[in-house]
Amino acid sequence: MLAMPTQIELYQDMTALSAEMVEAARAHDWNRLVALEKSVAALRNGLMGNDDNSRLTATERSRKAAMIQRILDDDAEIRRHTEPWMEQVRHFLGGTAVRQKVARAYGAVG
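RE: above sequence
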């Protein structure tokens, strides 16, 4: 029978994936970013009910805190790259919606 990964192992895997997400965001590789985020979400779900600090040593708690901080720093970096793209998408979709409303109201101009 396979052993369940420890809490620390799950955080290690999440930290590694988080770093890959930063690379994908910097490269504007949105498909890869989404796939990696799904992998992180699966790991995060694995932590549910398994995130008990009482079973960790002081060293492990410190390491866990450092990994969480790294993930948060990576998240900020990812957002720095994705937010401008998301704003462009919102602008494009907003403009499309307005054009569609005008076309419906006044008929298609051809």
